[in-house]
Design brief:
By secondary structure, the chain is mainly alpha-helical. It contains 10 helices and no strands. About 80% of the residues lie in helices and about 0% in strands.
């Protein structure tokens, strides 16, 4: 039961990074891929169907962490609470921008909340980068490893957002935003690959309780995915390679860090699993359905844009 619970925790961590990477990354890149009001509206329309769904995975992740891994939850909250506060603020600011930008038909009003979307996206990526680096290193202190690792995660968020934009923004009559996002996947993959190499070099002295042998395979997988994105078929492959790459930090936290994990009482495991067992298939099916239903953003104005 402990193994299954650990796999479930990893599933929701990786799932949230992959899903949130799309909407958070595109939020970060809005000033680059959207040069006018119409393009910004399409970017928000592309993000809107996804951000609430990805946050459901975050809520489930927190629930699993609190219900099945109280020792790990205590460690994370005690060591990383300032970063978690920043992450929460970033989430609130980005979501406020998405919810409020279309409530008043005024260009200045929309510009303010578009700025909130961008600022919240960057804050979320930076906070997730520092959380991931701190968990792998076992220490939130500022070191060459944590800085390099956090930078890698931020670049992976941006790459995931560019790949998402290259697919979701093709309904633009000129396809300009989609073209910009597609071109950006190549150089962002190069940035992420360079940051990964710097992180590996910084880890040589030993970032803490990390197991280098366990981290080697996920890191190699990420390097291969990023290298594939650098090629001429990068934009075509990036929807898959960016998802693989941003999943690796979550997997590395699970397999290579020395985080405190206590044995799960049987009664607790049975109670939590009895709730989760019917919910997990619904979440997975719902995510696939949502993606297929909203593969292209709406051309006409809606609630969010």
């Amino acid at each position: 039961m402990d193994v299954l619970s650990t796999l479930l925790l990893v599933l929701f961590l990786v799932g949230h990074l992959v899903l949130a990477g799309a909407d958070v990354g595109l939020s970060m890149l809005m000033p680059r891929v959207a040069r006018g009001p119409a393009q910004r509206r399409r970017v928000v329309a592309a993000i809107a169907p996804y951000f609430l769904a990805s946050e459901v995975w975050l809520v489930a992740l927190v629930g699993i962490l609190a219900g099945l891994f109280p020792a790990l939850e205590h460690h994370v909250v005690a060591e990383l609470w300032p970063v978690l506060v920043v992450l929460t603020v970033g989430l609130l600011v980005r979501d406020a921008g998405l919810w409020l930008r279309s409530r008043v038909p005024d260009d200045r009003w929309r510009a303010v909340w578009d700025g909130a979307v961008v600022a919240g996206g960057w804050t979320l990526a930076l906070a997730w980068g520092w959380v991931t680096a701190s968990l792998i290193a076992g220490d939130p202190a500022v070191t060459p490893f944590t800085v390099a690792c956090a930078s890698t995660v931020v670049s992976l968020f941006a790459l995931r957002g560019a790949a998402f934009g290259a697919e979701r923004l093709v309904e633009d009559p000129t396809a300009e935003s989609a073209d910009v996002a597609a071109r950006d996947t190549r150089w962002l993959a190069g940035v992420a690959l360079a940051a990964t190499l710097v992180t590996v070099v910084a880890a040589v002295p030993g970032p803490g309780p990390v197991d280098p042998s366990a981290a080697a395979i996920p890191t190699a997988v990420m390097a291969v995915a990023l290298t594939a994105t650098l090629g001429t078929s990068g934009p075509m492959l990036s929807r898959y390679t960016s998802a693989i790459a941003i999943a690796v930090p979550g997997v590395t936290v699970a397999v290579a860090s020395g985080l405190p994990v206590a044995s799960i009482p049987d009664t607790t495991a049975v109670l939590v699993w009895s709730v989760l067992t019917p919910a997990i298939p619904v979440m997975l099916i719902g995510q696939v359905w949502l993606y297929r239903m909203t593969r292209r953003p709406s051309r006409s104005p809606g609630f969010f844009a």
